[in-house]
Specification:
It is built from 14 helices and 14 strands. It has 2 domains: about 200 residues, D-Maltodextrin-Binding Protein, domain 2; about 100 residues, Periplasmic binding protein-like II (D-Maltodextrin-Binding Protein, domain 2), CATH 3.40.190. The chain has a 5-stranded mixed β-sheet, with helices on both faces. By secondary structure, the chain is of the alpha/beta class. InterPro entries: Bact_solute-bind_prot3 (IPR051455), SBP_3_CS (IPR018313), Solute-binding_3/MltF_N (IPR001638). This is Amino acid ABC transporter substrate-binding protein. Belongs to the bacterial solute-binding protein 3 family. Keywords: Signal, Transport.
Length: about 350
């Protein structure tokens, strides 16, 4: 969801300043030797990553970090969270400050090929939208001609909004902010007629507002924003660990494996795929150099994909987003686990 030019310049600076190039196995070896996973997350947004009243980080991305720590160490607490701003997130990854980035970051071709980093696989599907006052008599985005729009600076949302208004021969005035909380506060205060961002981030912002029912997210979506983890380019072993970990979280839901039943399923299942997934036969863990019970440990720690989503993003959560395209493919969504065999 971020514009490429500013990010490319920042990451190029980091790479030219002597950031080490990854060698095969370097990250996994370093993480195991350190005994802690360093995970990059958002600086604070409801649903994805935000500290609770005790200062403990909670959220969809946070649980994916904890789950990866459980896969590596059988301990979801062996993770250090590094909150990263939009401009610095890829720099922090490429320089080695974090091992993996789980931070509302869209998978794009230029990021994957130009920044010395790699997108792994989507774990959340989103799209650009607009939020307006519920009483503004705006039913669709084409009703917003002449509007002022709160936007995050240096994001693809800024470009998408400009393109939308230009394509529809409408004028608009952008009001740019560095952080999402600044944009949301300005929007609430009436500095903008609309707030443009990815729909999940708009829902997260609305959930934190004083009167959430005062605000409406328009139904149109104007872009494809598949979020997913990023790792450094050049370390295939670590890429495999993160990729198949995300895949396993999805596969656990496809297989009906939950926090409540994982031990019972492992003990009783005769399904060869589920037996492999849960380490009854050890080849999956051996393939990525982790404990054969790595998926069992993940599910016990954070649950399967549906449990993570419902806890932090679902209709019963403060964010209140239906699964939609983030449903399993068998239920009309886009989530589809690759075969784990």
């Amino acid at each position: 969801m971020r514009r490429m030019s500013a990010v490319i310049a920042l990451v190029a600076t980091a790479l030219c300043s002597g950031a080490p190039e990854a060698r095969a196995g370097a990250t996994l070896d370093a993480v195991k030797a350190r005994g802690t996973l360093n995970c990059g997350i958002h600086t604070g947004i409801a649903g994805f990553a935000r500290p609770d009243s005790r200062g403990v980080w909670q959220g969809f991305d946070v649980d994916f970090c904890r789950g990866l720590a459980a896969a590596l160490f059988n301990d979801p607490d062996k993770v250090r969270f590094t909150p990263l701003s939009t401009p610095l997130r890829f720099t922090a990854l490429s320089s080695g400050e974090v091992d993996v980035l789980f931070r509302t970051s869209t998978a794009t071709m230029l990021r994957d090929t130009s920044l010395g980093i790699r997108t792994v696989m989507p774990n959340f599907y989103d799209g650009h939208g607009f939020m307006v006052r519920a009483d503004a008599k705006i039913a669709k985005a084409t009703d917003m001609g002449g509007a002022t729009v709160c936007l995050l600076q240096g994001t693809t949302n800024e470009l998408i909004t400009a393109d939308f208004f230009r394509t529809n021969n409408m004028t608009m005035t952008p009001v740019l902010f560095e952080r999402a909380d600044q944009a949301a506060e300005a929007f609430q205060a009436g500095r903008c007629d609309a707030y443009g961002s990815d729909a999940s981030l708009l829902a997260a912002a609305r959930s934190s507002m004083r009167n959430p029912s005062d605000w409406t997210i328009l139904p149109e979506r104007f872009s494809k924003e598949p979020y997913g983890p990023y790792v450094r380019r050049g370390d295939d072993e670590w890429y495999d660990v993160v990729r198949w970990y995300v895949n396993a979280v999805i596969q656990a839901e496809e297989s009906g494996v939950t926090q409540a039943n994982v031990d019972e399923v492992r003990r009783t299942t005769t399904n060869p795929d589920t037996r492999r997934l849960l380490g009854v036969t050890p080849e999956l863990g051996q393939a990525i150099k982790v404990d054969p019970l790595w998926v069992v440990n993940v599910v016990k720690a954070v649950g399967n994909y549906g449990e993570i989503y419902d806890r932090h993003m679902g209709p019963a959560s403060p964010v209140g987003l239906p699964r939609g395209v983030n449903e399993l493919w068998t239920r009309g969504g886009l989530l589809y686990a690759l075969p784990m065999r």
